[in-house]
Design brief:
By secondary structure, this protein is of the alpha/beta class. The protein is built from 15 helices and 16 strands. Helices cover about 35% and strands about 20% of the residues. The longest helix has 18 residues. It holds the Pfam family ADH_N.
């Protein structure tokens, strides 16, 4: 057993090796061949071979089960999210590569008894192996719909052949590929009433909205009827999902800001729409408030001002899915970046806390309860996917280009059955 002192030393060694040995994000890797898979151990995948480089259709190794909780999915459709576009540019590397290193180390495990030199050697071997170019080709894509083709021994609630929806953690290879590796707590049965294309629009935004509203915002879906909620960016993927979640839970009032051309969509989903560009936007929001929870899905001047709309001394919370954490750690490094993000969070709360309110960040995380709730809600007719455009697999770079403009109505989805979708998308 490690003592407290040796545990601290171990963490210092880990941090040192992580800094020295993990792969550099700016480094190029050998480009993968653009060809059809030559054998059953390879698959086609859209990947980047360096950050800020074009997406390339590559031959890459098939994923394999590494532990008992994993599932391999034959991808039938996947969505493209803003996080995919930003990660292709290197966003979040400092944190995500550290998590990847730590996950690799934990999966490998340590002998029960080992001395200091053995510990150092094991850590070094782990990070050295991870630095052998496996960062690239980097496959993006955080959610998909497809069919289970293989599973670990601990996955007892799914069978090979089951149709499922799934999310993939950001530190793992994504699902813009013919097959994808996910985890037991990140997979749920696909809604039977939806196609794979429709289903792929749901998992990532659902888990993100759930993290913001339930995990961070502390909303109890069974006791939410009395709440009033304001959503900034109500017409985007997370915004449209959050509106529907709140309406499913019977929330008394849901108000959402968006552009004028998207107000009809927001109102069809069940929210009161406010044009954030209108001169009278602040007056309209004041008339609708105060709110127990404000959710920022879009960073705007109006969103920053809206702390004024929180109820006073009612433990109200202003939640944002746009945290500075990943941006700051990329800019300043892990330690200084964490410190910078922490200081910004403290500064952000100076005024709200004087009124008994809080401003908190929310982060996407796989959530089995959420994914099962999504499937059940769709089957009850209470939830529907909001899809802006569907692209064929061969046009996936065009999907990235569209999502990168950040002006969509709902989700952008890629259908892997190219016979269904013409070139250029629908």
């Amino acid at each position: 057993m490690f003592s407290a002192r040796s545990s601290f030393t171990f963490l210092r060694i880990f941090q040192c090796f992580a800094r020295r040995c993990r792969p550099s994000l700016a480094r190029n890797a050998t480009a993968a061949a653009q060809a059809q898979p030559s054998n059953e151990n390879q698959m086609r995948a859209w990947a980047v071979n360096a950050f800020n480089a074009p997406l390339v259709l590559s031959n890459v190794p098939m994923p394999t089960i590494q532990n008992d909780n994993q599932v391999i999915i034959r991808v039938k459709a996947a969505s493209v999210n803003p996080i995919d576009v930003r990660m292709s540019e290197g966003y979040g590397n400092e944190v995500l590569s550290t998590i990847k290193c730590l996950t690799e180390f934990v999966d490998r495990g340590l002998p029960k008894r080992m001395d200091f030199l053995q510990t150092q050697q094991t850590i070094g071997e782990t990070f050295s192996r991870m630095g052998q170019g496996d960062q690239f080709p980097l496959i993006l894509g955080r959610d998909c719909s497809g069919e289970v083709v293989e599973k670990g021994r601990a996955v007892t609630d799914l069978d090979v052949g089951d149709q499922v929806i799934a999310v993939v953690p950001p530190h793992c290879q994504g699902c813009h590929s013919e097959f994808s590796l996910s985890f037991r707590n990140a997979v749920a049965p696909k809604p039977a009433s939806l196609s794979h294309t429709e289903s792929a629009a749901l998992p990532y935004v659902a888990c993100t909205a759930w993290a913001a509203l339930v995990t961070t915002g502390r909303i109890d879906p069974n006791k939410a009827q009395h709440l009033r909620v304001l959503i900034h960016g109500g017409a985007g993927g997370v915004g449209t999902m959050a509106i529907q979640m709140l309406r499913c839970w019977g929330v008394e009032k849901v108000v959402a800001t968006c552009s004028a051309e998207k107000m009809q969509l927001v109102e069809e989903l069940g929210a009161k729409a406010v044009d954030y560009r209108a001169k009278e936007a602040k007056e309209q929001l004041i008339a609708e408030g105060p709110f127990e929870l404000i959710l920022d899905c879009a960073s705007t001047e109006l969103a920053e001002w809206s702390d004024e709309l929180l109820g006073i001394w009612r433990c109200c919370v202003h939640v944002s899915v746009n945290s500075p954490l990943l941006r700051d750690t990329d800019r300043y490094g892990l330690s200084m970046g964490l410190a910078s993000a922490g200081m910004k969070l403290l500064s952000r709360n100076l005024k709200p806390v004087l009124k008994g309110c809080f401003a908190l960040p929310a982060f996407f995380a796989p959530n089995s309860d959420c994914l099962h709730w999504v499937t059940e809600s769709v089957e009850r007719g209470q939830l529907r996917p909001v899809i802006d455009k569907v692209f064929p697999f061969s046009d996936l770079p065009k999907a990235y280009e569209k999502v990168g403009k950040m002006h969509g109505r709902g989700k952008t989805v890629v259908d892997f059955d190219e016979t269904k979708v013409p070139s250029g998308g629908i």
